[in-house]
């Protein structure tokens, strides 16, 4: 597969990115290294992680994923030059006090988090450093509406951007990006960069899948006009769009053993655990089968072929899942199938917002 340029940066990545949030929780280190090796063999050059991983977030596993990747890099000299490595600084801790002492995201927090990621990753530079979620109060992670009464902003976007600029100037970060952002946030970061001669964001990493296409409600226009690339995460809707929950009809404890939504209550309480999300996923999964596709292949091909998506982040727990996800590349979806997809969205909306 050809590589694509991220925004106006000099980063050229494969249109499939290996997400790693399962490493250190569902995936043991040896298995994680095997997945990383195989992804590299299959031509993937883009790896994404975060300081708060593994997921679900716990004090005991915070930073574990970066540590696993760092040891892999140390054991494979020369690999670092072949990959684009992305990680993220967590936003305000909000119930995760182990991430940092404050409940904001100060300039000092950004610098300290970057230093920690560099140590764990055993690298001298991060290719793409992203703010995992806004310091502002925004509708994300299951919150549907913006509520100005909940605003607790402590650090301006300008201050955050200046901190990131300092990391770029120091040679510790090459390019910057955002995650779980809104049209306002993307536009303001670009405007401030232009106004003050600071680094320009290259990417935004937001959820995008059949049961959550909220990115298409204005953020796609913002990113298109400002040349900011979408890194689409959760393309299979946290597993709902693989069909694994179809028979049980629930994302609760009765769902397939070992599945994230059935195992981790904290994750289930968010957007992916809603009954409406599962009901919609089952409709899309049935549609896939009617057209001779597996649910996973339809879900991934939808992201792989959308003009809005620069690179799709896949998260796997086994080599078999990795192969399945990569083999879905090149799948073409007919106009008739896409029309049926849009009809379901028109009826059911975006239940996993």
Question: How does this model look, in words?
Answer:
- This protein is of the alpha/beta class.
- It has a single domain (4-243, 303-333), classed as Alpha-Beta Barrel (TIM Barrel), CATH 3.20.20.
- The protein has 12 helices and 10 strands.
- The strands form 2 sheets. An 8-stranded parallel β-barrel has the order 3-4-5-6-7-8-9-10, surrounded by 6 helices. The protein has a two-stranded antiparallel sheet with strand order 1-2.
- Helix 4 (157-169) links the parallel strand 6 (126-131) and strand 7 (173-179).
- Helix 5 (183-196) runs parallel beside helix 6.
- The chain is globular, with a radius of gyration of 19 Å.
- The model has no long low-confidence stretch (mean pLDDT 94).
- Keywords: Oxidoreductase.
- One of its GO terms (molecular function) is oxidoreductase activity.
- Residues 15-344 form the NADP-dependent oxidoreductase domain.
- Pfam families: Aldo_ket_red (PF00248).
Salient structural properties:
two-stranded antiparallel ribbon, 353 residues, TIM Barrel, alpha/beta, oxidoreductase activity, single chain, 10 strands
């Amino acid at each position: 597969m050809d590589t694509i340029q991220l925004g106006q940066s000099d980063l050229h990545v494969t249109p499939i990115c290996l997400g790693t949030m399962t490493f250190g929780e569902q995936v043991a280190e040896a298995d994680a290294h095997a997945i990383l090796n195989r992804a590299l063999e299959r031509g993937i050059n883009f790896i994404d992680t975060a300081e708060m991983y593994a997921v679900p977030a716990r004090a005991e596993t915070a930073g574990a994923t970066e540590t696993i990747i760092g040891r892999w890099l140390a054991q494979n000299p020369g690999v670092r030059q072949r990959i684009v490595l992305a990680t993220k600084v967590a936003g305000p801790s909000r119930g995760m006090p182990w991430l940092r002492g404050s409940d904001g995201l100060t300039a000092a927090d950004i610098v300290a988090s970057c230093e920690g990621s560099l140590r764990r990753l055993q690298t001298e530079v991060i290719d793409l450093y992203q703010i995992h979620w806004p310091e502002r109060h925004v509708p994300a992670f299951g919150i549907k509406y913006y509520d100005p009464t909940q605003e607790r902003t402590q650090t301006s976007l300008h201050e955050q951007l200046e901190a990131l600029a300092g990391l770029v100037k120091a040679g510790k970060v090459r390019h910057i990006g955002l995650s779980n952002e809104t049209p306002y946030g993307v536009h303001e970061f670009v405007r401030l960069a232009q106004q003050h001669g600071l680094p320009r964001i290259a990417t935004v990493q937001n959820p995008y899948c059949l049961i959550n296409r909220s990115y298409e409600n204005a953020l796609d226009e913002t990113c298109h006009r400002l040349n900011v690339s979408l890194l689409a995460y959760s393309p299979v809707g946290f597993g709902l769009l693989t069909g694994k929950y179809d028979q049980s009809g629930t994302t609760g404890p009765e769902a397939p053993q070992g599945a994230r939504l059935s195992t981790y209550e904290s994750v289930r309480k968010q957007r992916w655990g809603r009954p409406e999300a599962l009901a919609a996923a089952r409709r899309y999964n049935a549609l896939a089968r009617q057209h001779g596709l597996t649910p996973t292949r339809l879900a991934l091909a939808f992201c792989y072929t959308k003009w809005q998506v620069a690179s799709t982040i896949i998260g796997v727990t086994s080599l078999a899942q990795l192969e399945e996800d990569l083999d879905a590349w090149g799948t073409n979806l007919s106009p008739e199938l896409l029309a049926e997809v849009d009809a379901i969205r028109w009826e059911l909306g975006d239940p996993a917002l």
